[in-house]
Design goal:
The complex is a heterodimer of chains A (249) and B (113). With 249 residues, chain A is of the alpha/beta class. Chain A has eight helices and eight strands; from the N terminus they run E-H-E-H-E-H-E-H-E-E-H-H-E-H-E-H. Chain B has 113 residues and is α+β, with helices and mostly antiparallel strands. The chains are: A alpha/beta (249), B alpha+beta (113). Strand 1 of chain A pairs antiparallel with strand 6 of chain B.
Chain lengths: 249, 113
């Protein structure tokens, strides 16, 4: 056991390259430093900004097409007049999602990542640079649609919400364990399609999340029928109340 | 594939380490990677061959030690190995476990000259 970092190295490390100690004239330095420490530092900086201005920050992650933007549209409408919602949305290209969200009356900042498959803390910080945080109650960060890469990057959010649309299959948590292990809440979206998908078992999806040692609730949700929206909005209200926010009646 | 971004973060650290130690270049880099870090070791090595070009690590060799997953059961209290998509207790089968290791992504050591 490494006392300084908590990292457990194998007693006989499996090295991809064979290597046999420092050559003459070279010196070996022990570092033991997280490779993504700079991102984590920037994420903590973001989190301090959010805390200072009492903003609830939520990182929304899913595969492309699971309904992140549709969920946000429904959430904005459900909370209209109650809470100030702002969205930072990441896509490789286009301003489409930000435009959709703006039509619901909220401030939305589009990040185009080009060929990059995830957001990082610095990119989010840059996007928020000209935004006044003070009036914001909820900041949604709609990550790039991808179940792999975004999981490795802390953005400074308070909670991770991961969407799994029922058309994707109930074994997604087993296929993408790092992502679903990070979830504080899993929304099983497009639940209105369940009658057409006899192979999707919501309890199996939940079991696959539990096998990741994750107690996150799994909630069936449809923006078409409204199923689960009460639960989702109640969860947001609980998180907001924990920050002392009651909203405008 | 975010491994190239991870390599760029690694190169930034190497540049700092070389400057702080008044060294000229990096010869060998040892990284520790766990299955729960979200970074694939094979692609990390591939990305490194690109990321190192024109840097202090241009001729450096990267070796990656795998960090095994270990969990501690919150119910029976025992420890044991697990896999990335099944972190249940290997003794009693309960899912309420704590990950002790397997999620690290660390720069362990470097050799400089």
């Amino acid at each position: 056991m490494c006392d300084s970092c908590g990292c457990v190295l194998t007693s006989e490390p499996v090295s991809i390259d064979g290597h046999h100690g420092a050559a003459p004239g070279q010196r070996e330095l022990s570092i033991l430093h997280g490779i993504l420490a700079d991102n984590n530092h920037a994420a903590q900086h973001n989190r301090e900004h959010f805390n200072l201005h009492n903003v609830l920050a939520i990182n929304l992650m899913s595969a492309p097409g699971s309904g992140k933007t549709a969920l946000l549209e429904a959430t904005i409408d459900a909370f209209a007049g109650q809470y100030n919602i702002t969205v930072v949305v990441g896509d490789l290209a286009t301003e489409n999602d930000a435009n959709r969200l703006r039509r619901h009356g909220v401030q939305a900042v589009q990040i185009n990542t080009g060929n990059t498959c995830h957001l990082d803390a610095a990119v989010v910080h840059h996007a928020l640079h000209d935004i006044a945080l003070e009036p914001i109650d909820i900041l949604f960060i709609e990550n790039v649609g991808n179940l792999v890469c975004p999981a490795a990057y802390d953005l400074g959010q308070h909670f991770n919400v991961v969407l799994l649309s029922v058309v994707e299959g109930d074994d997604k948590p087993a296929k993408y364990p790092v992502m679903f292990r990070s979830a504080d809440l899993v929304l099983l979206t497009k639940s209105d399609l369940l009658p057409h998908l006899p192979g999707f078992d919501p309890s199996a999806a939940e079991e696959n999340v539990r096998r990741l040692a994750n107690a996150a609730p799994t909630v069936l949700l449809s923006v078409v029928t409204g199923e689960g929206m009460t639960h989702w909005c109640a969860q947001l209200t609980t998180w907001l109340a924990a920050r002392g926010k009651k909203g405008t009646p | 594939m975010h491994e190239l971004s991870v390599c760029q973060a690694l190169i930034e650290q190497l540049i700092t380490i070389v400057a702080e130690n008044q060294a000229r270049s990096v010869h060998h880099i040892k990284v520790c990677n766990g299955p729960l870090s979200g970074v694939d070791s094979h692609f990390l090595k591939q990305a490194f061959t690109v990321a190192r070009l024109g840097t202090v690590a241009e001729h450096a060799e990267l070796s990656i030690d795998r960090e095994p997953i270990q969990v501690r059961c919150s119910v029976c209290g025992q420890e044991g190995g697990a896999t990335a998509n099944s972190l249940v207790c290997p003794h009693c089968g309960d899912w309420r476990t704590e990950v002790l290791s397997g999620d690290a992504l660390l720069l362990v050591s470097v050799e400089l000259s």
